[in-house]
Design brief:
Elements (H helix, E strand, L loop, with lengths): L12 H6 L7 E2 L2 E2 L1 E2 L10 H14 L9 H20 L7 E4 L2 H16 L5 E5 L8 H10 L2 E5 L12 H5 L3 E7 L11 H10 L3 E5 L11 H4 L3 E5 L10 E5 L1 H6 L10 E4 L4 E3 L13 H17 L1 H21 L3 E4 L10 E6 L4 H10 L2 E2 L1 E3 L4 H7 L4 E5 L6 H17 L2
Parallel strand pairs: 3-15, 5-6, 5-7, 7-8, 8-9
Antiparallel strand pairs: 1-2, 4-10, 9-10, 11-12, 13-14, 14-17, 16-17
Bound molecules: ligand 7TS.
Ligand 7TS binds next to helix 4.
């Protein structure tokens, strides 16, 4: 029986785990305990099969429309677009298939902010953004004379929204913020931010890299203007990323990259553009990765994202109580489960996060250590780095306990 046959109220983790070949591995003489899914997730057999099937039977270039195999590849690619759009409850016309969240956010920063905003216009970000949702806006601001302003982070790791009204006033044109922090696990009350922004005719761009993989997300319910995420964090291959944008915005935006597939007509002097969303998909796309992303959407819909989310909440709550009970561990981010998801950052007193990560690895426990591409947030927390454990649908309570045992070993070594 695979996880897809399971229709019980809670997630059958044993069945889920059986779908993931890599989770059967041992590392340094121990069963692998993979707690780094916020960096990238593992892939189930169903996704691996979809990629394999594409390359074995249907591989050809897309949108050329002459031979049978090419048409099959086009159907797979365009089928992935509609499948992914359905997964996030969004019109497919606005769904641009790219490589990752970073590329998607650069597209918005370049083709919307840099090209369509005016000098003096303001973009609001937050202090807890991943560099991917900060650096592209800095580049656009520098080139187009835009101003950047920031929502701050409270001591408890929640977003300080007290200054929101003021920051939404003219000349603000756009807010770009992550739905869930990859460091603190903080889940932002996005709908409230979006409603407040729209009242002022301010657009909202959502970095959903850490939310679409972990909870039900409906673009229609959120009513956001742009939304970006990466397939590789939701059990799909690396190389498939998504930007969803309101089609009318995509129509007004000039292309991001120029080349094949994104044009209507080309002369030596001038070109015109293909329709939306193809205008933003220059060059040969990663069709195999798109096929894998569609399979990942099937996989999650068969399980139910609400069930995935509930499972992660249980694991995170267990992890937080375990860390709180241990001496000499600082946990960053909200402790209230209603304000957070399953990325948990911590430090062991007087031990560098990299040492923590290395000792955990010796016991088969994979966590991330470092600044997590959030240097401004590290500064706000007053630390150089943190260790971070992040859970997913395939993790178990026993694995959280294994992390606890491995951390006790860290404390013993450094006593
Ligand atoms: N935004 C957020 C909130 C992220 O967590 C990440 C990746 C990105 C954007 C960029 O995604 P990419 O697929 O374009 O690279 N976060 C992490 C992490 O926390 N550890 O490794 C990558």
């Amino acid at each position: 029986m695979t996880s897809l046959d399971v229709a019980t109220a809670t997630l059958d983790v044993a069945a889920v785990r059986a779908d993931f070949p890599l989770l059967q591995r041992r590392v340094n003489g121990h069963p692998l305990v993979y707690l780094d899914s916020a960096a990238t997730s593992q892939k189930p057999q169903q996704v691996l099969d979809a990629v394999d099937n594409y390359y074995r039977l249907h591989n050809a270039n897309v949108h050329r429309g002459v031979h049978t195999i090419g048409n099959e590849a086009t159907d797979i690619f365009e089928g992935a677009r509609t499948r992914v759009a359905r997964f996030i409850d969004a019109p497919a016309e606005g769904l641009v298939l790219l490589r990752n969240t970073t590329e998607a956010l650069n597209l918005v920063a370049s083709s919307y902010a840099r090209e369509l905003l005016s000098p003096g216009d303001r973009i609001v970000l937050t202090e807890m953004e991943h560099h991917s949702n900060l650096v592209p806006w800095q580049l656009a601001a520098e080139r187009a004379g835009l101003e950047l302003a920031f929502l701050r982070v409270n001591d408890d790791g929640t977003l300080d929204l007290s200054g929101l009204d003021e920051l939404l006033a003219p000349p603000t044109k756009l807010v770009s913020l992550s739905h869930q922090s990859n460091v603190l696990g903080t889940v932002v009350p996005l709908r409230a931010v979006i409603d407040a922004a729209h009242e002022r005719d301010v657009l909202v761009c959502v970095d959903a890299a850490q939310s679409v993989p972990h909870m039900p997300v409906s673009v229609r319910d959120l009513d956001c203007d742009f939304l970006a995420f990466s397939g590789h964090k939701m059990c799909a291959p690396m190389g498939a990323g998504v930007l969803w944008a309101r089609p009318e915005l995509l129509q007004r935006m000039p292309p991001f990259l120029g080349g094949g597939s994104m044009i209507l007509r080309v002369s030596l002097e001038k070109s015109t553009w293909s329709t939306v969303p193809h205008k933003f998909e220059a060059g040969t796309p990663d069709v195999g990765a798109a096929a894998g992303l569609a399979a990942a959407c099937d996989y999650f819909d068969a399980i139910g994202m609400d069930r995935v989310h509930a499972h992660e909440q249980q694991l995170t709550s267990h992890l937080l109580s375990l860390l709180e009970e241990m001496d000499g561990i600082d946990v960053y981010g909200p402790h209230d489960m209603s304000a957070r998801g399953g990325a948990v950052s911590f430090n062991v007193t007087d031990v560098h996060a990299h040492d923590v990560g290395t000792i955990l690895d010796r016991q088969g426990v994979a966590v991330r250590a470092g600044h997590h591409c959030c240097q401004p947030l590290m500064k706000r927390l007053g630390v150089a780095a943190t260790a971070r454990a992040s859970v997913y649908l395939y993790n178990t309570h026993e694995e959280i306990d294994a992390l606890g045992d491995a951390l006790a070993e860290v404390r013993r070594i450094f006593r």
